[in-house]
Amino acid sequence: MSSKTLQGIRSIEELDLDEKNVFIRVDFNVPMENGVITDDNRIRAALPTIRFALDKGARILLASHLGRPKGKVDPQYSMEPVGEYLSRMLDLDVVLIDELRGDAPKALFKGWKDGQVLLLENLRFDPDEEKNGRDLALAIAEYTDVYINDAFGASHRAHSSIVALPQEVRNRGAGFLMKQEIEFLDKVIYDYEAPFVTILGGAKVSDKIGVIENLIDKVDVFLVGGAMAYTFQAAQKLPTGSSLVEQDKVKFAGELIERVKARDKKLMLPLDHVIVPSFDRLSEAKITEGVAIPEGWMGVDIGPKTQAVFREEIKRAKTIFWNGPMGVFEKPALAKGTFAVAAAMAENQSAVTVVGGGDSAAAAKASGFADKMKHISTGGGASLEYLQGDKLPGVEALRR
Ligand code: AMP
To answer: Which of 143, 178, 213 is the last residue of a domain?
Structure first.
């Protein structure tokens, strides 16, 4: 495999799957409303691996967690809707099984036919899963010849299906989604090409400190927007009105500005803002003349001047990593800055463009430019941990 991290880890293509029981840990932790899946990205992202295993003649057992049922069976977190959805997408039978201990599954596995996909009920119904318990791992291992991890979004957790289980299965490896995630994130942290632009936004500086620290010597330009920007603005002693400011991170923000300057790199903050008196008075939204935010007003998006300047930087870049929206993009009136960044990234087709998971993935999708990005991570927490230089337990567990 091309990435440095993936050396020593087998790919699904290198394993013999023919007539084997293949357990695939997927990340089907999808958002749902009243039992209806509202975003199927994670399911779609696992399809290449599932289809490949089917073509190779595997008997597939899929498993994922969904929500936080905290080690107890809770019907609202059942995988049933996911199984039905997957069944329609694959156009074949997906059979939901409650659990693997006891005699009942034995009979089911005896009659397991090629091309029949089994889906295990929510892994987190079992208290062992989050404790990285060996008992659950052994129960699954009994039916597993080959273990595949395709759940990048869950691989920052040392849970039973992620860590304890692969330790019990000799033939283990990474699925296509896992490989793609690592390959793209490795391009950002190891094989980046200058100019390297990192766009950071979202609610908090504190969540991103690790990533900033890990990237500070690699990035040429940091573009900072979202609520995060106001903590930096406060560090420069500029008025922030009633915008979100993380008081305990103001000092860090000030030091960061100096550190970036000392390295002859750029950290660019908004030059203008969209401001509102409060979230229930959005119709009064206006754009500031300069950087100062008046008393009684809060910043909720980057303004047009900022969009234009950020766009220029994004246009020139060869490597672009984006994490965190530029404003409260969930409200259409406050999404312009975020969508402008997405549009600028989409325009630069010669760059490696990588979008972090979670809110940033949702923002990219809402912008309509998602399919123009080279990679959108399916893992929020996992991609941040990886980019801050941490080894992911689920990736390490796949090594030979
Ligand atoms: P994060 O998970 O840190 O990437 O933060 C994402 C959240 O930050 C989104 O829900 C945005 O609505 C929110 N956000 C972005 N900009 C602002 C802002 N200026 N004021 C309040 N919330 C914001």
So the answer is: 178
